[in-house]
Specification:
- The complex is a heterodimer of chains A (224) and B (318).
- Helix content of chain A is 77%, strand content 0%.
- With 224 residues, chain A is mostly helical.
- The mean pLDDT of chain A is 84.
- Chain B is built from 11 helices and no strands.
- Chain B is globular, with a radius of gyration of 19 Å.
- The chains are: A mainly alpha (224), B mainly alpha (318).
Chain lengths: 224, 318
């Protein structure tokens, strides 16, 4: 195992996984179907866990194995399960409606990626970590998830965008400083889980009130 | 030409001859694979040759009011494809003809063929001809930047736009994972599907004029003209497959002028083409033809992937 995985190769694998992460962010941005969106989110979580595992291997930081394990359990198994259940209960398998058409969204996405890469370059030049090159990608996936939240009009894709943003932040933390302290990481994991559960309750409330999950109805919420 | 070498000239001649002779076989192989995957017997891999012979033997009928452009186009098309086939390194990278055109000029040659075809289709003035031409130009203008970006990614890795040198560098590099090449590979596959009138964009076997792109443009051609156009179409598929092989799977392409390398490169090329043809058939089996208005989205994705490849290269590999 040690003979196979030289440090150079591990670095390349981390870079490859980072690139796949960016690709998955774009795929989520372009995805029309809500069920595929959840699958893509699970795939992104898996890639994230894998890359965290490789960073842990490359740096010998054992607590990163724990975060990889938590990521795997939470973002690949638990959250997609909850989201699938939610969708079945809400019966919202319809195609995702986007506010801007998808090619335009993707062009905006490319501009965001260029911005993120430019922003991250001076920072990563200062850093001495193995993963310094991937900071730009982490920032890009945060921005892309943000863009996804902005361009979707329905509640469920927005929540998936929020979760994808958390994925990007997690990746940024791994890339910049080899992960956050364990306490913080556990706290965030719990936050995300609770957040999804609360938002799940919100979905039902929104639908009960407006017969739809379109967020724009919330803008008209006024006392009469 | 200062460094003229006989081995280079022989490699160049073999390569061009091979491309022209094997191109219909590749098209036949793809059709045969598709038939097998669909549980049909299939027409046999040699069918395109029989079709070409049949067409050459027939009289060419020219529509009333056709300008000379209509007669010249099949030859322009075939010439462009031959030139493209001569530039792309398939067997060896020591090609005396390669300095004539680099990767950007290659895209230009392919564009020239496309424009000639579209003009000829509009020349007759039939509704289907101009419909096909317009669609072809739409697909073309979306696919071209993506193709350029793919070639630029490979050029950035090897610091040159000369195809022969790019392939030379890529095939003799020590093993390393290039995320950018992986992206570029996917983008290139999508572009080649669109450019060769393959299934997600166009159905090469359709008989329904309203859904045609490439076929609609050649409806008015017959006899030897049609034979040349069909031949050029299969050459185009061959050239695209060879660009893909040269950029993404260059192992086995002979570098210097040694004769043994060329001899060994031939079975490697045939093997890779056979596998590539199978994969192409498999892609066509599992996907359905898209609505024409989904094509911009498909090609936009290809362009985006190619740009991402460039960016990822700039960020991670420089």
């Amino acid at each position: 195992m040690t003979a196979l995985l030289t440090p150079a190769l591990t670095g390349q694998i981390i870079n490859l996984l980072a690139a796949v992460l960016l690709l998955l962010s774009f795929a989520m941005l372009a995805q029309r179907r809500i069920l595929s969106l959840i699958d893509l989110f699970a795939a992104q979580g898996f890639v994230l866990a894998l890359s965290t595992g490789f960073v842990a291997y490359a740096t010998g930081q054992s607590h990163l194995y724990w975060s990889a394990g938590i990521t795997l359990g939470l973002k690949v198994v638990l959250l997609p399960l909850i989201l699938h259940r939610l969708i079945r209960r809400l019966d919202v398998k319809w195609d995702v409606e986007t506010l801007i058409n998808i090619p335009t969204t993707m062009l905006v996405g490319i501009v965001l990626v260029i911005l993120a890469f430019n922003l991250a370059q001076p920072v990563s030049e200062l850093a001495g970590t193995v993963t310094r090159g991937t900071l730009g990608i982490a920032l890009a996936s945060v921005l892309l998830a943000f863009l996804m939240m902005i361009t979707r009009s329905k509640a469920v894709p927005q929540v998936i965008g929020f979760l994808a943003m958390e994925n990007g932040l997690f990746f940024a933390a791994t890339a910049a400083t080899y992960g956050m302290p364990m306490v913080v990481e556990l706290g965030i994991a719990l936050d995300v889980l609770i957040g999804v559960i609360i938002l799940g309750v919100f979905f039902f409330q929104i639908r009960e009130r407006f017969d739809s999950l379109d967020i724009h109805h919330l803008e008209k919420l006024k006392e009469e | 030409m200062s460094d003229f070498s006989w081995s280079g000239a022989i490699a160049q001649a073999t390569e061009l001859l091979l491309a022209v002779l094997l191109a219909p076989l590749l098209a036949g192989w793809v059709n045969q694979c598709r038939a097998w995957l669909q549980n049909r017997t299939g027409p046999g891999v040699l069918r395109p040759y029989f079709v070409l012979r049949k067409l050459v033997a027939k009289d060419a009928i020219i529509a009333d009011g056709a300008s000379p452009l209509f007669r010249v186009t099949p030859y322009v098309l075939f010439g462009c494809m031959c030139m493209a086939a001569a530039i792309v390194p398939t067997l060896g990278t020591d090609l005396p003809y390669a300095p004539v055109a680099d990767a950007i000029a290659l895209v230009g040659i392919l564009a020239l063929a496309r424009v000639a075809m579209a003009l000829a289709a509009m020349d007759i003035g039939t509704a289907f001809g101009s419909l096909g031409a317009r669609r072809e130009m739409m697909v073309g203008f979306l696919a071209e930047p993506a193709l350029l970006m793919v070639l630029f990614t490979a050029s950035l890795i090897s610091h040159t736009t000369s195809l022969a040198t790019v392939v030379e560098t890529l095939s003799h590099k020590e093993f390393a994972i290039y995320p950018s090449l992986a992206f570029a590979g996917v983008a290139f596959t999508m572009v080649s599907l669109a450019e060769n009138a393959r299934i997600p964009i166009d159905n090469p076997a359709t008989h329904l004029e309203l859904t045609m792109i490439h076929e609609a443009m050649v409806l008015e051609y017959s006899g030897r003209h049609l034979a040349l156009i069909e031949w050029a179409a299969s050459l185009k598929l061959f050239v695209y497959s060879c660009i893909g092989i040269a950029l993404f799977f260059p192992f086995g392409i002979s570098g210097g002028g040694e004769a043994l390398g060329l001899v060994l490169a031939l079975p490697a090329l045939v093997g890779k083409l056979a596998i590539g043809g199978c994969l192409l058939a498999a892609i066509e089996i599992v996907s359905a033809k898209m609505r024409i208005f989904r094509a911009p989205e498909f090609l936009g994705t290809a362009f985006m992937l190619a740009v991402l490849a460039l960016l990822v290269h700039a960020l991670l590999e420089s």
